[in-house]
Amino acid sequence: MNAHIEQSSPDAKKTMTTTRVLASIVIILSIILVILIWENQKTSTQIVIVYETIPQENEGSGDEIISYQELETDAYQITYPEINTDSELIDTEVEQYINNRVEEFQIFANQDRVGAVAEFGELPEFLKRPYVLDIKAKFSNGESIDSLVLSNYQYSGGANGNADFKTFVVLNEDKVVNFIGEIIPINNRQEAKEIIVKALEDMTFEDIRGSEVLFPNALRDLDLNDVQFSITNDSNIMLYFDEYQVGPGVIGAFSIDISNTNLFDLTEL
To answer: For residues 238 and 247, what is the distance between their CA atoms, to the nearest angstrom?
Structure first.
């Protein structure tokens, strides 16, 4: 009996080879896609907008000195203090500063929304969260020197807000100053600057020395007429630095107690 052996034609073999190649490519692409999806889930980070105020306590003050008011619309949330100290000078200057800052922020928040609607046709999702202005106050009353410090937090979109200070120091009830350079004579400026820079370099930010994280150029070129301050107990000096003033944004706005140095002795007080 003659056996009949059926042989595949060259075209059939070519078709089978092509099918196997395509199947292999599909499998490989599927594996790559699974790996990419897994890697993306593993490494992706959810961006969460977080804002907080700079913590401040009202030293030597009660509700009769500092109270807080709130303004809220779809465009903004504003918290600000009303000040009522024994100093007409400080009350007037602080009230003027707060009123100006609140008004400017209201205009800015409203105009930002109007501009966005004009550009996109409707309010974008990223602007549906209201902007935030949070102003906190700290008052220190001394025998001859009063100080009031405003710590300001402002959020106007993005992942984080910005923080800054505004200080008011009343000397002998007849003069308001804001910067440490205003009370240090010219002849003492260099020594005072060296004391401040050393204190900044020696302070720590989450276990990192200031000399490692602060901007070297900002410390070298530090202008005492740009450094805000307050005085407690008529002689203890605290210095205040806005966000990005002398260091990166990660350290934010911060203050430093300088009372353990002889800086006060270099002032004209």
So the answer is: 18
Ranges of each domain in the chain:
49-177, 179-269
Give the list of residues 6+ apart from residue 200 with CB closer than 8 angstroms, or none. Answer: 210, 214, 219, 246, 256
**What does pTM read for this prediction?**
0.74
Alpha-carbon radius of gyration of the chain: 31
Question: Measured between alpha carbons, how far is residue 237 from residues 19, 27, 45, 91, 196 in Å?
Answer: 82, 71, 42, 21, 11
- CATH level 2 (architecture), domain 179-269: Alpha-Beta Complex (3.90)
- DSSP 8-class letter at 247: S
49-177 folds as Heat Shock Protein 90 (3.30.565)
- Alpha-carbon dihedral 69, 160, 202, 171, rounded to 10 degrees: -30
SS3 197: helix
- CB-count burial class (<10 Å; 0-12, 13-18, 19+) for 182: middle
The C-alpha angle with vertex 145 and arms to 139 and 148, in degrees rounded to 5, equals 25
pLDDT digits (tens, 9 = 90+) for 63-116: 478 999 999 999 999 999 999 987 888 889 999 999 999 999 999 999 988 988
